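Structure first, sequence second, as always.
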């Protein structure tokens, strides 16, 4: 059974494999070790007893919780796993009264744009040539959260 739990250092080899499979400019293990130690950075994994199949990492900032990375291995997509990770993040957002969730996504990433739109995010900005690997623009997306 797949469950959502906080990321621990032992997960990092799995996470780096997911990164390499999902992104043209993957984060390396050292970057994850550094981020895991940062007090404002939070990370979740979706895992069975042996392996992680997805993860979400975000940072608490003044304007809201900033999604740094979200990925699900290809074989496990369209099963609601990213949605479950996001729901867990929303529980945390409510606890800390975060005003919004924010992120950047490549304009060419149709799957991720569809996912975030389905989850209530809206585009509020664009940054030209943000992604080095294909010089694509980043769309800045935000989901505003109700005050509790
Ligand atoms: C984007 C991503 C995280 C979505 O993960 P997922 O677990 O497949 O998403 P879910 O199953 O929770 O999808 C929930 C809803 O989002 C939308 N959605 C997700 N993937 C979609 C796709 N490829 N095309 C259209 N809509 C999509 C649908 O509305 C979906 O609901 P449905 O399956 O009932 O139609 C996944 O495709 C991924 O890891 N992509 C590669 C990494 C990446 O681009 N990360 C984002 C960086 S900003």
């Amino acid at each position: 059974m797949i469950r959502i739990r906080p990321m621990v250092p032992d997960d990092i080899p799995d996470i780096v494999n997911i990164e390499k499979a999902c992104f043209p400019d993957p984060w390396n293990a050292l970057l994850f070790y550094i981020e895991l130690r940062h007090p404002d950075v939070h990370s979740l994994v979706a895992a069975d007893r042996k392996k992680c199949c997805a993860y979400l990492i975000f940072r608490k900032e003044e304007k809201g919780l900033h999604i740094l990375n979200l990925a699900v291995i290809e074989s496990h997509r369209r099963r609601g796993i990213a949605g479950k990770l996001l729901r867990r993040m929303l529980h945390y957002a409510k606890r800390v009264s975060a005003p919004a969730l924010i992120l950047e996504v490549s304009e060419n990433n149709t799957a991720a744009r569809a996912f975030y739109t389905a989850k209530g995010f809206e585009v509020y900005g664009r940054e030209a040539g943000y992604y080095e690997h294909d010089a694509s623009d980043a769309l800045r997306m935000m989901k505003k959260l109700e005050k509790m």
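Margin note: The longest helix spans residues 81-95.
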